[in-house]
Amino acid sequence: MNTPPRIAFLGLGVMGSGMARRLLAARFPLVVYNRDPAKSAPLAAEGAAVAESPRAAAQGADVIMSMLSDDQAARAVWMGKTGALRGAARGAVLVESSTVTMAWIAKLSAAAARRGCELIDAPVTGSKPQAAAGELCFLVGGSGDALERIRPVLAAMSRKIEHVGPSGSGSLLKLVNNFLCGVQAASLAEGLAIVERAGLDRARALEVLTKGAPGSPLVQNFSGRMVSQAYNPPNFLLRLMTKDLRYARREGGRRQVPMTTAAAAIKVFERAIAAGYGEQDVAAVVEPFRQSAPSAPPA
After folding, report:
1. pLDDT tens digits for 159-171?
2. What is the pTM of this model?
3. CA 165, CA 169: separation in Å to the nearest integer?
C-alpha cells in the first residue's frame, strides 16, 4: 500500500491497549473501540480516534483487528447489531487476535467471505510487557496473500510472525500453547506449596528448580511473581487462562485426545477463581494452597 492502511482496533484490555499503542507509534491511522469508554480515553489522548460502536470503528478501515476475552465477546463485537462486520467495507482484511475456538473462527470466516472480506486468525504469544514493547509473536492462520497485505501492521506489534497454516490453525496452536502454559502454572503452584509447607529454604529450592530441567521461561517468570505476590496489575488474567484451558480441552476432545492434564489444571484454576483470584494475575493460582495450609502442630 502506498499510503498507510487505516486500522480499526476493537478491545483495549491488558493486551489490546499495548498493541494499539504500537500501531500509533508506527503512525498508522487508528480508530479504537472498547465497550468501556474509559479505556479508550488514554488512546484518544495519544492520537487515536474513538468510535462509539464496532460498526462505526470498522467503517472505512482497511484492516479491522480485535483482541477480546472469549468467543462470546468476539461474537458480540463482530456480529451484533452494531457489530464490526456491518461496517466492514468489501476488501477489508479482518484480523481475529483473540484466543478463541476454531468453531468461532470458522463462523467468522464464513461471515467475512459473505461480506467480501477475508479473515486472518492471528492470536499472539506473550503477555502485557511484550504487547507494550512490540515483542509479541503472531500465530497466523489463513491465506498467505492476506497475510502479506497486513504484514506491516502485524510487524509493528511483534518480533515474529509465524504463518502456521490455513484458517483456524493459528487459533488451534494458540490453545495448545496456553494449555501447556496453564498446566505448568498449576504444577508450579502445587510444587511451591510443597516447598513452603515442608519448610524448605524457598529461595534455594527455586534456584534449583528454575535453573534445572523444569526451569522454563514460564516457571522462571511465574515463580518470581508467586514469591513476591505481584498479581496486580495483571499481565494475564487468571480467569482467562482458565477459559483457554477449557477451550483447549474441548479441541482435544474433538480429536479424541483425553486432555487429562488439562482437566486437572482446570480444577486448580477453578479453585483459585472460587477463592476470588479470577481478576488477578495468573500467578495467583498458588494462593489457595497457601490459604488452606494446615496450622503447625502444637509443640
Report:
1. 999 999 999 999 9
2. 0.95
3. 5
Cell of 152: 506491516
Task: State whether 75 and 163 are in the same domain.
Answer: yes
Q: Report the CATH number at residue 271.
A: 1.10.1040.10
211 is catalytic: no
Number of compact structural domains in the chain? 2
What is the pLDDT averaged over residues 47-71?
98
For residues 19 and 40, membership in a common domain is answered with yes
Mean pLDDT of 215-230: 97
Please spell the DSSP secondary structure of 2-20, one letter per residue.
-SPPPEEEE--SHHHHHHH
pLDDT digits (tens, 9 = 90+) for 5-36: 999 999 999 999 999 999 999 999 999 999 99
Residue 235: DSSP 8-state: S
Tell me how far the alpha carbon of residue 47 is from its chain's centroid: 25
Helix, strand counts (H, E) of the chain: 14, 9
Q: What is the CA radius of gyration of the chain?
A: 20
Of 111, 142, 167, the residue that ends a domain is: 167
pLDDT of residue 176: 98
Do 216 and 152 belong together in one domain? Answer: no
User: Model confidence at 298, in pLDDT bands (50, 70, 90)?
Assistant: very low
Domain that holds residue 270: 172-291
User: DSSP characters for 89-117?
Assistant: PTTPEEEE-S---HHHHHHHHHHHHHTT-
Percent of the chain with pLDDT over 90: 96
Selecting among 107, 160, 174, 211, the annotated active-site residue is 174
Residue among 250, 245, 256 nearest 102 (CA)? 250
